[in-house]
């Protein structure tokens, strides 16, 4: 495998399983030193062990991205271990509500937006001073096809994914002035535990041209491209990785 990330440090949130883990694994296989995190120590420990089986250089940190001190600790531990941050991937997301949009309660609504939107912005803001010190640094935000094409099953989650597309575009000019690229991926239905309701029983393809679910390593391959110098003239963009599913704002 091509080593596009030698001497690069990549910090990936929500990265002990699913899409986040696959991104960490792919960047690590291409030479990056990777920092993974999750709210639960047992998940962090298991993911680190999996990466080390492949002799990948990695660090695991327990972090609740919705807590400022945890975000600060995550960045500090990364700097302490590796001396910088070249790539920040904001993948973490929650979805505590399924069903009718009007049945969600305020606590669930706040949790969705605090984690999926607010913490993404604040972590990027906290990481900017370190990213701007590096050459060819970049930020990658993971949104969702649901941000374009809301699902009635997970409508509040879908709503929370649309601002990430706008955030990417809005951050583009300010990041460019600092020498930082910022891009976004909107995955379709990916076969992970997080999206099990969409593929386990009767697959929901949302008009996907390819009529199949996607896989985490397919999103990871897209992430590796956007985080590499192969995408050196791409910023402020959202790449839809959804098998041709309809996407329009």
UniProtKB/TrEMBL annotation:
A single GO molecular function term of this UniProt record: carbonyl reductase (NADPH) activity
InterPro entries (alphabetical): NAD(P)-bd_dom_sf, SDR_fam
Xref: Pfam families: adh_short_C2 (PF13561)
Coiled coil feature spans: none
Domain of life: Eukaryota
Protein family membership: Belongs to the short-chain dehydrogenases/reductases (SDR) family.
NCBIfam families for this protein: PRK07231.1
Protein's name according to its UniProt entry: Dehydrogenase/reductase SDR family member 4
UniProt lineage: Eukaryota, Metazoa, Spiralia, Gnathifera, Rotifera
């Amino acid at each position: 495998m091509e080593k596009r990330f030698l001497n690069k440090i990549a910090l990936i949130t929500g990265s002990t399983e699913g899409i986040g883990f696959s991104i960490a694994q792919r960047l690590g296989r291409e030479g990056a030193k990777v920092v993974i995190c999750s709210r639960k120590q047992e998940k962090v420990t298991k993911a680190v062990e999996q990466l080390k089986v492949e002799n990948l250089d990695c660090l695991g940190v327990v972090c609740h991205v919705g807590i400022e001190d945890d975000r600060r600790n995550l960045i500090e531990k990364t700097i302490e271990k590796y001396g910088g941050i070249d790539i920040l991937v904001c993948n973490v997301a929650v979805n505590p509500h399924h069903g009718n949009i009007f049945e969600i309660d305020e606590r669930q609504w706040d949790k969705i937006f605090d984690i999926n939107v607010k913490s993404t912005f604040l972590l990027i803001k906290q990481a900017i001073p370190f990213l701007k010190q590096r050459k060819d640094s970049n930020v990658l935000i993971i949104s969702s096809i649901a941000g374009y094409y809301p699902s009635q099953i997970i409508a509040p989650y879908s709503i929370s994914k649309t601002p990430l597309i706008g955030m990417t575009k809005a951050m583009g000019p300010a990041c460019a002035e600092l020498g930082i690229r910022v891009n976004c991926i909107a995955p379709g239905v990916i076969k992970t535990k997080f999206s099990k309701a969409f593929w386990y029983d009767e697959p929901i393809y949302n008009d996907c041209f390819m009529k199949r679910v996607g896989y985490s390593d397919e999103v990871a391959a897209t992430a590796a491209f956007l985080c590499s110098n192969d995408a050196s003239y791409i910023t402020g963009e959202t790449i839809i990785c959804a098998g041709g599913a309809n996407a329009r704002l």
